[in-house]
Amino acid sequence: MKKTIALVLALAMALCLCACGPKTGPGPAQDVNLDMTAFYEATMEKYEFPGMVLAEGDMLEMFYPGLSTLKDVAEFQVYTPMMTGAAAELTLVKLADGGSADAVKAVFDARVAACTEEGMNYPDTIDAWVNNCRQVTAGSYMMLVVHSDCDAIVADFNAAAGAAQ
To answer: 149: pLDDT confidence band, cut at 50, 70 and 90?
Structure first.
């Protein structure tokens, strides 16, 4: 009888240890490492965008002032159309460990405000920025997208970043 009880207790203890082990795969509490370049390329293949360029230097500072100097940002990629009148954009940001999304959101909000200011763009472009622009945060990643299929692109981003739906 003592051997049976000891065996049952040992088995119960082993099961408890297995339950406390590390989880595999991304979940709500775990973050994934999103390859932002691969996500951009997959998005360009799946959805019709105008010719896009990676904004750098003066262009980056003009469109997203301060983004490159934020301490809360570990990495970013800003893709914008080659023609200024085209209403499309894809901006991807990875927050630094412990970084806050608030400062990035402020930069995103300023970009949207600049593109929707009356007299600064064509009426159709302003309309697209108002109706087809989404900002989303998934784990330590953020995205601003302007596209007629913005909601589908957001769903793709959430899936790629491992965000819980």
So the answer is: very high
- Which one, of 138, 157, 146, 160, lies nearest residue 114 by Cα? 146
Those residues with Cβ within 8 angstroms of residue 147's Cβ, 6 or more apart along the chain or in another chain: 47, 49, 88, 89, 90, 132, 153
Could you tell me if 156 and 34 are in contact, meaning their C-beta atoms sit under 8 angstroms apart? no
Residue pointed to by tokens 């082990």:
21
Q: Which residue in 165, 162, 161, 163 sits closest to 36, CA to CA?
A: 161
Q: Of 68, 70, 71, 49, nearest to 58 (Cα)?
A: 68
Partners of 66 in beta bridges: none
Percent of the chain at pLDDT exceeding 90: 65
Nearest to 139 by CA among 91, 97, 90: 97
Domain boundaries in the chain? 33-160
Is this prediction's pTM over 0.85?
no
Residues in the chain: 165
> What is the model's pLDDT at position 123?
87
